[in-house]
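In the current project phase, we have settled on a layout for protein records. A sample record is reproduced below.
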Amino acid sequence: MARFILDKSKAIEQYSSLKHLGEVMYNLKTNPAVGKVLQKGTDARFVVSSAGGLKHVKPARVCYLIQGEPMMELKNMVESGISSFIVDNENDLAKLTTITDDIELFLRVRVKEHTVYTGKYFVYGIDWRRAREIIPDIKVRSLGVHFHRKTQNIGEWDLLRDLQPLLSSVLSKIDKLNIGGGLPWTYVNSKPDLQAILAKLETVAHELDQTGIKMVLEPGRYIAAPAVQLETNILNSYDNSLIIDASIYNAAMDTYLFNIRLPVQGETEQGHKYLIKGCSPDSLDIFRYKVFFPEQKNPGDTLTFLSAGAYNFHTNFADLPKIKTELV
């Protein structure tokens, strides 16, 4: 039966590799199982964006991303011990600061993106021009700016250039800059230059340090992806197609959402060519359209997908079973 294999030491290693840059938060939506490992093995805090997610994390380690929660729900969070929040609109900002000012608050802003895909993602956060106007009047214990590009961000890492029009006027007012998520990982069809990206982040951290501002990162995918493998079994083989006992709908929604193609353990550049299909008859249920192995694959053989830890959540499509995660 298919299973996820979560390497606890790898998750902690990935988290620890970024600690020198600033504070590292883990966004629980990336993979809650990885979040549980980090909660036990590190001092990480966690970005949570639903009331249901709060049951997984101690209140003192939560940074809650508000999106329209009622006033009473926010009061209950504060009373439970949650004192760190992210807001991306003025309505939620007004509600929260009415309840208390003894909080760490990140104001999510949006600035110009440099990509043809801007229209799809450029909708969250307060416009930087408006943020520049309201930041001086926000009175809280600790104020930060939250800035998020997109998941698997390969090219847009000139953060200080893009934020300069905002930061130049509010530097003295903020304590932290949360650059959000987007730190990528390597897949078959997406191979970012991680060393170059990390070098840019080193520069950002250094320049912020000169101004007394602390950098915060939310590298969910960078931590979760390499820490998890998806081990599957071949159910059928015909016409150079392999049917496995998992589906993108219960094991790899990242494939559909962001066109991420997972590498397979043991694959080569030539040899026996296969199409790998999920166990549903849906035409989108394709893990890989073309993968080569040095040997022929048969029913009963195991196929293991690497870097399978990000956004591998289960859906109820076709009543597919939820795949269990085993720790090693």
Observations:
- The chain has two domains: 66-218, 225-327.
- The radius of gyration is 21 Å.
